[in-house]
Design goal:
- The chain is of the alpha+beta class.
- Strand 1 and strand 2 form a beta hairpin.
- The two termini are 39 Å apart.
- The mean pLDDT is 90.
Length: 216
């Protein structure tokens, strides 16, 4: 589990993409502090397992499902990536609960400067937009952000200068692909409501019932 607060930008030093898997080696420093083989690190919002460690780099395995649903296959040597170590129970939850299990990708459609902030408009599929709501949380390339608005074909987020300077979004422009993970709690709620039998969707709770039982 992660928070969506990026710890540092790493640099891809090696990438081997095979038919159904890949090996990714990343140059980093801060996220290697206390890290051991088998630990999880979010790379552009994707929860990956460390399989090899060196002084200033680490290697992760990438399976076919991850390659299909994320933008990892677009990386090349020298690409910058957002890095975050797994959440500890003693850590402040500065962002929101991020699982590192990417739902799919979106495309940056427009960037508009508004005061000190920049508004990113991102196109996404209807399947993803179903779980995105205004003022809700979303992870974009592993960055915890608040949704400004939701339209028919996409949504928008607003970035402060610090976020642009300290993450890969400051390096991306219109047309770039981003990994999207919708709100974890929202997905569970939607799944639960979708599984409620039709016969149970009509509640007998009324204002009178609430008053009688001390809720009003």
């Amino acid at each position: 589990m992660f928070t969506g607060i990026i710890e540092e930008l790493g640099t891809v030093s090696d990438l081997q993409i095979l038919t159904n898997s890949a090996f990714l080696t990343i140059e980093a420093r801060k996220v290697l502090e206390g890290t051991q083989i088998g630990d999880s690190i979010a790379v552009n919002g994707i929860c990956l397992t460390v399989v090899k460690l060196q002084d200033t780099r680490f290697t992760v395995d990438v399976m076919a499902e991850t390659l299909q649903k994320t933008n990892l296959a677009e990386l090349v040597r020298g690409s910058r990536v957002n890095l975050e170590r797994a959440l500890q129970l003693s850590t402040r939850l500065g962002g929101h609960l991020v699982s590192g299990h990417v739902d799919g990708t979106g495309t940056i459609d427009k960037i508009t400067k508004t005061g000190i902030a920049e508004v990113f408009e991102i196109k996404a599929s209807p399947a993803l937009l179903h779980y995105i709501l205004p003022k809700g949380s979303i992870s974009i390339d592993g960055i915890s952000l608040t949704v400004v608005n939701v339209e028919q074909e996409g949504f928008s987020v607003s970035l402060i200068p610090h976020t642009r300077q300290e993450t890969t979004l400051g390096l991306k422009g219109v047309g770039a692909t981003v990994n999207l993970e919708t709100d974890l709690i929202g997905k569970y709620v939607a799944r639960f409501l979708g599984n409620i039998p039709e016969s149970e969707k009509h509640s007998n709770i009324s204002m009178e019932f609430l008053a009688q039982h001390g809720f009003l």
